[in-house]
């Protein structure tokens, strides 16, 4: 992978001839989604994007499987611990093989794993797809802060350690994030989106977010990036389309005003490295 | 098939024991695998205590959102060295250098390792490497602070200029070579020094697992060594292998590191799987259920482990997600086979709840938790959700704490063989309960913290005071684990030469229980006939051989199997 020729890293292309398989797999997931209020959350939450909801349902599916298998194994262990404790010096039957049983607990797990993999693929293909959109935000991570650039709108939001920057994005629209790093590896993580992605130096990472509700969400760097890693926060504000447009307009003016006095603001330019390679 | 049973024990003053150095000079110059193995064991346990002390400081820091016990910089050093010491200096060397070194040659009826001097070199490289890595705390700038994975370019000379990082690289190179030499030694020993009658499918599971571990070491560690040399060259010789500015690729480091790092997980785990297998079989008084299936499961895990490294890199966006996802999920299958085989071994047994057996059962439960949460992480969307949060921290701490339980089981089980003396069972059981309950109290809150969005490697969390409650529980668990470690040391001091063990205190199955405790210089005065994987059991209980394929008829004799 040469940094000079950067392909979009949105995941490999896959043929679209899996319609039947897909519906077959979506059905149980959809059933699960309908029953969403009764199925336990297993510690996770549906989150605020379309992807975060399907990830949440996948989480529930995995957790139901884990609960069943985990309980079965614990019961089997507890059973032998409780009822097969040493009571005499008699030597038990020296059973060593039971081929049908061994085959069963080889084949059944393979089938379970294939099922988990199929469900994973359904959610993953949707999550890593990058549909066309005209809302694009360039996110640049650096030690120790974030820079959000809105290409074509002359808007830049920068913040580091003490002042967390806020990324503003519209609700119910596909928003493509072009993620890069200026120095070391960082992690772009928004808990409410059930999603994270590395910001890698020399790599352009693209992914699409589609928020389903407005609000203010916490984001944070998750990949160790040096001394102030613990303080590398940002926020995401999801607003209506109208608010987004007016925010862009007001910010464009502010950014222009800032640019006028940029000659004097040596500080920021020394702190924020210039963006490197971009495909 | 030999039967050297009736051969009289060699006369007193047997060969090498009578003359030669004694005391510290003997320890310094020894090539006896048992003495080297004991040195490994003691050194590794000391490293576990050091790494555990770092962990206690980390948990104390996290007990409040604005912890002020250590600075941000010190915190980065502490978790880096906690992970490094535990993985590189404790778990790995303990797994393949300590008990393996002592037990594997005896289990196959060999007098020593194939290359005794290379074995000694392994130990001295390991000790030197450990001291080198830890000495980072005494240089200007402190110890390495880029995490135990040393991701480029954070580990470059620009982002991390200190010499603590160089000592980390140097220490890891030395212990890496030590591991490679041990891998060579174990392979050669298992392939060439088995006693007559000890065919491959009569080797105990522990030895089998160590063989697969040794092969994985030979495949994985040279890659790490090469990567470390590249990293060092980037730092000091002006190469740009991992730096974008010079045309390098930072993510290459992650590929190299995890190509070693994921097999390493199984290099750590398989020996403990082996220990637990032996313990469960002996204390259930039954043969290992599905012995051959167990071996094929081990081989399958070894093979799959070489094709899953990029599941640590799902969120880089640079790897083929479906391939690494299905490969990682598939590892659950052989691991599940092992779990069911362990249960099958206990099933309808006569289970004796010694400390070793309790540790093994604690291993099963803890490993079950770690294994199941690992299946979540093999699914890329769920990994995007939990990557680099405390969920991952909790997952691998469930796994490695299971290994610690296995290690303690191994020490209680083989300790009497190595030293000739038992440990106190009452203190041992107290140690078990502190360790087992402490582990769950420690890990379960961390799973929840991860799901609530707490990233790993944070020194403070002032914006999220609601995380404190769960962090405090994790700290309580860590303290309980610390208490269990203290109880272990107390037990060693209390039981010192107090309870003579005898040759076969547990009614063992394998050859090490046939020789004396501790074994003589070249391990055996005599050997029983070896006609199954349980020669000592067959010798002691000739009427209770393992049943053929569940059909109730005992194998008529060895040749039928």
Describe the structure.
With 279 residues, chain A is of the alpha+beta class. In chain A, 38% of the residues lie in helices and 23% in strands. Chain A has 2 domains: 103 residues, no CATH class; 137 residues, Immunoglobulin-like (Sandwich). Chain A contains 5 helices and 10 strands; from the N terminus they run αααββββββββββαα. In chain A, strands 3-2-1-5-8 form a 5-stranded mixed beta sheet. In chain A, a hairpin with a 4-residue loop joins strand 6 and strand 7. The relative contact order of chain A is 0.15. The N terminus and C terminus of chain A are likely disordered. Chain B has a single domain, classed as Up-down Bundle (Cytochrome C Oxidase, Chain A). In chain B, 63% of the residues lie in helices and 1% in strands. Chain B has a two-stranded antiparallel sheet. In chain B, helix 7 runs antiparallel to helix 8 and helix 7 packs parallel to helix 9. Chain B is globular and about 70 Å long. The chains are: A alpha+beta (279), B mainly alpha (561). At the A-B interface, helix 2, helix 3, strand 7, strand 8 and strand 9 of A face helix 4, helix 8, helix 9, helix 10 and helix 11 of B.
What is the CATH architecture descriptor of the largest domain in chain A? Sandwich
Which architecture name of chain B does CATH use?
Up-down Bundle
Radius of gyration of chain A: 25 Å
- The level-1 CATH class of chain B: Mainly Alpha
The CATH C-level class name of the largest domain in chain A = Mainly Beta
- pLDDT averaged over residues of chain A: 83
CATH-derived topology of the largest domain in chain A? Immunoglobulin-like
The total number of structural domains of chain A is 2
Could you describe the largest sheet of chain B, including whether it forms a barrel? 2 strands, antiparallel
The low-confidence runs of chain A, each spanning 5 or more residues with pLDDT under 50, are 1-18, 263-279
CATH superfamily of the largest domain in chain A: Cupredoxins -  blue copper proteins
Sheet with most strands of chain A:
5 strands, mixed
The number of E-state strands of chain A comes to: 10
Oligomeric state as shown: heterodimer
- What gross morphology of chain A would you assign? elongated
């Amino acid at each position: 992978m040469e940094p000079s020729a950067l392909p979009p890293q949105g995941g490999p292309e896959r043929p679209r001839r899996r319609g039947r398989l897909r519906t077959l797999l979506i059905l149980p997931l959809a059933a699960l989604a309908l029953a969403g209020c009764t199925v336990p959350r297993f510690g996770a939450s549906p989150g605020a994007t379309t992807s975060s909801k399907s990830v949440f349902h996948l989480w529930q599916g995995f957790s139901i499987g884990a609960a069943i298998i985990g309980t079965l194994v614990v019961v089997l262990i507890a059973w032998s611990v409780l009822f097969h404790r040493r009571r005499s010096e008699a030597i038990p039957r020296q059973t060593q093989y039971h081929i049908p049983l061994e085959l069963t607990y080889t084949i059944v797990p393979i089938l379970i794993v294939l099922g988990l993999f199929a469900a994973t693929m359904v959610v993953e293909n949707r999550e890593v797809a990058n549909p066309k959109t005209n809302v694009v935000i360039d996110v640049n991570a650096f030690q120790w802060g974030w820079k959000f650039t809105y290409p074509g709108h002359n808007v830049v939001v920068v913040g580091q350690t003490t002042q967390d920057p806020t990324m503003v994005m519209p609700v119910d629209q596909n928003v493509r994030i072009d993620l890069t790093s200026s120095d070391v590896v960082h992690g772009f993580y928004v808990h409410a989106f059930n999603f994270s992605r590395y910001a890698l130096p020399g790599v352009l990472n693209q992914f699409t977010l589609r928020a389903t509700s407005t609000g203010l969400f916490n984001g944070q760097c998750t990949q160790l990036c040096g001394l102030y890693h613990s303080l590398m926060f940002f926020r995401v504000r999801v607003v209506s389309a109208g608010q987004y447009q007016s925010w862009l307009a007001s910010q464009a003016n502010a950014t222009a005003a800032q640019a006028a006095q940029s000659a004097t603001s040596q500080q920021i330019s020394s702190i924020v490295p210039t963006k490197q390679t971009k495909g | 098939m030999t039967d050297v049973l009736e051969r009289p024990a060699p006369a007193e003053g047997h060969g090498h024991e009578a003359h030669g150095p004694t005391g510290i000079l003997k320890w310094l110059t020894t090539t006896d695998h048992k003495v080297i193995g004991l040195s490994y064991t003691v050194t590794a346990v000391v490293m576990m205590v050091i790494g555990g002390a770092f962990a206690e400081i980390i948990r104390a820091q996290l007990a409040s959102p604005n912890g002020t016990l250590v600075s941000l910089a010190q915190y980065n050093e502490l978790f880096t060295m906690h992970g490094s010491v535990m993985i590189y200096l404790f778990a790995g060397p303990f797994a393949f250098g300590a008990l393996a070194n002592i037990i594997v040659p005896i289990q196959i009826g060999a007098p020593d390792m194939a290359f005794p001097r290379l074995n000694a070199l392994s130990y001295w490289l390991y000790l030197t490497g450990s001291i080198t890595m830890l000495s980072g705390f005494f240089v200007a700038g402190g110890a390495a602070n880029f995490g135990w994975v040393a991701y480029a370019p954070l580990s470059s000379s620009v982002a991390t200029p200190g010499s603590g990082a160089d000592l980390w690289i140097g220490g890891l190179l030395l212990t890496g070579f030590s591991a490679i030499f041990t891998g060579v030694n174990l392979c050669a020993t298992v392939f060439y020094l088995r006693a007559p009658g000890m065919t491959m499918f009569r080797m105990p599971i522990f030895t089998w697992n160590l063989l697969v571990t040794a092969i994985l070491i030979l495949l994985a560690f040279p890659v790490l060594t090469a990567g470390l040399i590249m990293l060092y060259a980037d730092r000091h010789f002006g190469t740009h292998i991992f730096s974008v500015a010079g045309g390098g690729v930072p993510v290459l480091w992650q590929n190299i590191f995890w190509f070693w790092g994921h097999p390493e997980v199984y290099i750590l785990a398989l020996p403990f799987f082996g220990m637990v297998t032996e313990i469960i079989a002996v204390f259930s008084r039954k043969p290992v259920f599905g012995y051959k299936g167990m071996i094929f499961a081990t081989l399958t895990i070894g093979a799959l482990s070489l094709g899953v490294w990029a599941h640590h890199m799902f969120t880089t966006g640079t790897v083929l997600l479906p391939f690494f996802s299905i490969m990682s999920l598939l590892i659950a299958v052989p691991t599940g086979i092992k779990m069911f085989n362990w249960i099958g071994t206990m099933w309808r047994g006569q289970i004796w709840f010694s400390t070793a057996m309790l540790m093994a059962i604690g291993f099963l439960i803890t490993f079950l938790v770690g294994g199941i949460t690992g299946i979540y992480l093999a699914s890329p969307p769920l990994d995007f959700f939990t990557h680099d949060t405390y969920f991952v921290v909790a997952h691998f701490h469930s796994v490695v704490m299971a290994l610690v339980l296995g290690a303690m089981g191994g020490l209680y089980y083989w300790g009497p063989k190595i030293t000739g003396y038992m440990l106190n069972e009452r203190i041992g059981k107290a140690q078990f309960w502190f360790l087992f309950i402490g582990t769950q109290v420690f890990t379960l809150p961390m799973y929840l913290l991860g799901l609530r969005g707490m990233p790993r490697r944070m020194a403070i969390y002032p914006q999220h005071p609601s995380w404190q409650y769960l962090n405090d529980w994790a700290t309580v668990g860590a303290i309980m684990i610390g208490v269990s470690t203290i109880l272990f040391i107390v037990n060693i001091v209390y039981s010192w030469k107090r309870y003579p063990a005898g040759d076969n205190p547990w009614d063992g199955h394998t050859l090490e229980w046939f020789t004396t405790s501790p074994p003589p210089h070249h391990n055996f005065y005599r050997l029983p006939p070896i006609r199954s994987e349980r020669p000592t059991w067959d010798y002691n209980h000739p009427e209770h051989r393992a049943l053929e394929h569940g059909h109730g008829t005992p194998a008529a004799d060895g040749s039928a199997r």
